[in-house]
Amino acid sequence: MENPALDKLLDYVSQCNLRDGDPLPPERTLAETLGISRRDLRGALASMEASGRVWRGVGRGTYLGARPLKFAPSLRSLRTGSSPADIAEMRLMLEPALIELATRKASPDELAELEKCAKRNAIARDDDEWQQWDHRFHLLIAQATRNTAIIALMDVVNGMRMKPNLREKTADQDTRRHFAQQHQAIVYAMMERDGETAAARMRDHLLNVQWRMPAKPE
């Protein structure tokens, strides 16, 4: 899928010799420099964030590279020996709980972005495109909590899921469409500020994900 705004942003990063950890200019300045709208710029940044190439902090700006984890020493051990089933089991415990907090705090713009992610999931043409928008969807929910510890933890979980040997597969279109419908049901509950229903919808979704995983070795 072509994305001219993303291409311009990547060219800018390359031409300016920016490296991981370097900050990007404020959105208004960067959009004017690139000759694109702020809406298109946000879409390009969202794409880069979903693939782990930038991170954005509330009140801090946008930086190249992966989000620095304050809790890295303790979270790093999560990557060791974890299986897709382990990750699915952990997500089932965490995400239904955190979404209730996100439902209370999410801004209208965040809810609109979540709805956009669900729609993009519904038309994803392959597993790679699905994963991009799926990771974006779940990370946005974490970010809506405004809790840096939760965001850091979900960053690690998403990073684990992106590893080829740890990621769940959504290879067929029927599965992708079904999961996208579940994402949309989650967003609708959040828009109604119904945290209990949002949590139940997330639990149903993650149970479906877990059901498709290989059995966890005893």
TrEMBL record:
<dbReference type="InterPro" id="IPR008920">
    <property type="entry name" value="TF_FadR/GntR_C"/>
</dbReference>
<feature type="domain" description="HTH gntR-type">
    <location>
        <begin position="1"/>
        <end position="67"/>
    </location>
</feature>
<protein>
    <submittedName>
        <fullName>GntR family transcriptional regulator</fullName>
    </submittedName>
</protein>
<keyword id="KW-0238">DNA-binding</keyword>
<dbReference type="GO" id="GO:0003700">
    <property type="term" value="F:DNA-binding transcription factor activity"/>
</dbReference>
<keyword id="KW-0804">Transcription</keyword>
<dbReference type="InterPro" id="IPR036388">
    <property type="entry name" value="WH-like_DNA-bd_sf"/>
</dbReference>
<dbReference type="InterPro" id="IPR011711">
    <property type="entry name" value="GntR_C"/>
</dbReference>
<keyword id="KW-0805">Transcription regulation</keyword>
<dbReference type="InterPro" id="IPR000524">
    <property type="entry name" value="Tscrpt_reg_HTH_GntR"/>
</dbReference>
<dbReference type="Pfam" id="PF00392">
    <property type="entry name" value="GntR"/>
</dbReference>
<dbReference type="InterPro" id="IPR036390">
    <property type="entry name" value="WH_DNA-bd_sf"/>
</dbReference>
<dbReference type="Pfam" id="PF07729">
    <property type="entry name" value="FCD"/>
</dbReference>
<dbReference type="GO" id="GO:0003677">
    <property type="term" value="F:DNA binding"/>
</dbReference>
